[in-house]
Amino acid sequence: MTRYTPPFEIHVHGEVPLRDDVDEAQISEALKPLWAYAGARSMSEGASSFYEEEPGIQIKHQEGVLQLCWTVPGDENFRHVLDDVCMGLNEVAAGGAALEITFYDTEFEQSEETEEDESRDDFLMVFVGPTPAAIMQVQRDLLIEDVVHLMERHFDGSELNGVVDEIDKLFAQRFDDLVNSLELGKPPRGSGGGSNGGSGGGSHGGGRRPRHLH
Known about the structure:
CATH class of the largest domain: Alpha Beta
Order of helices and strands: EHHHEEHEHEHH
Oligomer: single chain
Helix content: 25-40%
CATH topology of the largest domain: Alpha-Beta Plaits
Structural class: alpha+beta
Mean pLDDT: 82
Shape: globular
Distance between the termini: 38 Å
Radius of gyration: 19 Å
Strand content: 15-25%
Strand order of the largest sheet: 2-3-1-4-5
C-alpha cells in the first residue's frame, strides 16, 4: 500500500489575547480542529509542533495570551479547518488578533529546482476577535502599518496623515455596512473577514516566504 505524503508543511503563527474567565478546557475545545487535524487525542498531545525548535501551541498565563507557532504536515483541506478554528477562538479571545497561515510546498523543496519551477507556497491571514469591531481594528492597524511602511520610502511620516484618515473612513464605512446588514438580517457587504475570521489574499509562487525562526 502506497504511503501518503502530505504535500505541504502548514505553519500557524500568532498571538491571541485571552479572556480572563476562560479556562484551559475551553481553550482546548476552541483549538480542537487544530490538534485533531494533527491526529492527536488531546491538546496536550497535539500542542507540539512538527519542528522541535518551534514553541508549538502554548497558553501564556502570565501574559494572558495564546501563542501559536505550530507546524503540521497537511494538504489543501486544512483551509476548511481554519473556519472552525476562527469560530472557536472568537469565543475565548479578549481582543482582535491576526494569525498568519503559511503553506510550504514540501515537494518543491525535495525536487531539483530549475528556473522554470514554481512552488505552490501560499500565505494568508485570518482574523479573530470577540466582536466584528475588534476584528476590523486589527485589520485596520495592519493595513496602516503596511501602507505607511511602503510610503515612508518616498514621503515623510508627517505627510501621511491624510492617507491614514482615508483608511479610517473606509473602515468606518465597512463597519456601518456591517451594522446595517445585521439589522436587516443580511450578510455584510464587502465584509472581507467578519466575526468568523476572514482571510486575506494569498500569494502563490514567486519568492518563497521565509520560515519563522526562534
